[in-house]
């Protein structure tokens, strides 16, 4: 029964994930307040009709960070917290955190200019992967096999002009068995995991390929929880690869899609997220 608990959801569009979240909230008798990320304005003074908790589902990293900053400013707890969004939304800061907390992660070297970039790539060795510091769905990433191909990618990136493309995140290429792993953490629990298989080296479910439920082994569970805790915890999808030396974490996603994972595992991920948000909102 509803006791007037209000769950806010900040979103760009209603994808299957948001549809499932709205349905889960409704099933639990919660009142849902919807905020469109292209429509909402934020005054310094708190509005009168605030929700008890805000679930961020905006596809924009910038909007996610500012919106959760505002709701936090108004005293509304958010899933995830703005600091977590900022940190996990940035692959450079995430890598530093994972390393600092002893979570195995691929060797990574950053350069802040096209002049220094070739040295970052040399330092990780070939093949290397160049990634944008902020981004998802495997976009704008390149695998380079030689100094010559690295030089060409660096030149193209610099020509794009945007400041974010003059940051060069170079990572050792991890030879993986045609798949990677995605584990979904809600609070202090791994709720599901899947393998993502693909013909190409980028195995993002959004790029096609196939997914399959993965067993929650002790290694996977432990590393995923440690990776989530390293960025501040909450609702986080942890990406891992099976390297020759064991699992390594390469990314922690703070506003993850979960349609493919729910389909592959049958896990009620939306329900778990709403339960978690309600718990946070009632604290
Ligand atoms: N260092 C790497 N070695 C081999 N494959 C990688 C490496 N980093 C990423 N990949 C592949 O590329 C995909 C996308 O990389 P990721 O770092 O997760 O960025 P995104 O934010 O775009 O998902 C991963 O799921 C993985 O399959
Ligand atoms: Mg990823």
Question: Could you walk me through the main structural features you see in this protein, from its secondary elements to its overall organization?
Answer:
The model has no long low-confidence stretch (mean pLDDT 95). This protein starts with 5 loop residues before the first strand and ends with a helix. It is globular. The chain contains nine helices and 13 strands. The protein has a five-stranded antiparallel sheet, with helices on both faces. Strands 2-1-3-4 form a four-stranded parallel sheet, with helices on both faces. It has helices at 16-27, 61-73, 82-88, 91-100, 117-124, 147-159, 218-230, 259-265, 269-282, and strands at 6-11, 31-36, 53-57, 78-79, 108-111, 128-131, 142-144, 168-172, 179-186, 189-197, 210-213, 235-243, 246-253. The structure holds adenosine-5'-diphosphate and magnesium ion (MG). Magnesium ion binds next to loops. Magnesium ion (MG) is lined by residues 204, 239, 251.
Question: Layout of helices and strands, plus pairs?
Answer:
Layout: E1 6-11, H1 16-27, E2 31-36, E3 53-57, H2 61-73, E4 78-79, H3 82-88, H4 91-100, E5 108-111, H5 117-124, E6 128-131, E7 142-144, H6 147-159, E8 168-172, E9 179-186, E10 189-197, E11 210-213, H7 218-230, E12 235-243, E13 246-253, H8 259-265, H9 269-282
Parallel strand pairs: 1-2, 1-3, 3-4
Antiparallel strand pairs: 5-8, 6-7, 6-8, 9-10, 9-12, 10-11, 12-13
Helix pairs in contact: 1-9, 2-3, 5-6
This protein binds adenosine-5'-diphosphate and magnesium ion.
Residues 204, 239, 251 line the site of magnesium ion.
């Amino acid at each position: 029964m509803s006791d007037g608990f209000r769950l806010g959801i900040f979103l760009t569009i209603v994808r299957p994930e948001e549809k499932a979240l709205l349905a889960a909230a409704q099933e639990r008798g919660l009142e849902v307040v919807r905020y469109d990320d292209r429509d909402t304005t934020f005054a310094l003074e708190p509005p009168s009709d605030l929700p008890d908790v805000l679930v961020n589902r905006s596809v924009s990293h910038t909007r996610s960070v500012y919106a959760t900053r505002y709701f936090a400013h108004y005293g509304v707890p958010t899933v995830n917290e703005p600091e977590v969004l900022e940190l996990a939304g940035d692959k450079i800061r995430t890598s530093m955190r994972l390393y600092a907390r002893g979570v195995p992660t691929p060797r990574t070297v950053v350069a802040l200019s096209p002049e220094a970039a070739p040295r970052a790539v040399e330092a990780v060795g070939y093949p290397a992967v160049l990634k944008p510091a902020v981004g998802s769905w495997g976009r704008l990433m390149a695998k380079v096999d030689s100094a010559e191909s690295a030089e060409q990618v660096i030149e193209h990136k610099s020509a794009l002009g945007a400041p974010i493309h003059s940051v060069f995140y170079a990572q050792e290429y991890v030879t993986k068995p045609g798949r990677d792993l995605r584990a979904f953490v809600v609070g202090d629990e791994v709720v599901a995991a899947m393998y993502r298989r693909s013909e190409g080296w980028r195995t993002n479910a959004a790029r096609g390929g196939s997914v399959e439920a993965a067993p929650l082994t002790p290694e996977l569970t432990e590393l995923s929880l440690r990776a989530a805790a390293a960025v501040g915890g909450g609702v986080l999808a942890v990406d891992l690869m099976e390297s020759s030396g064991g699992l390594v974490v390469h990314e922690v996603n703070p506003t993850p899609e979960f349609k493919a994972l729910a389909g592959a595992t049958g896990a009620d991920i939306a329900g778990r997220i709403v339960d978690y948000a309600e718990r946070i909102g009632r604290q």
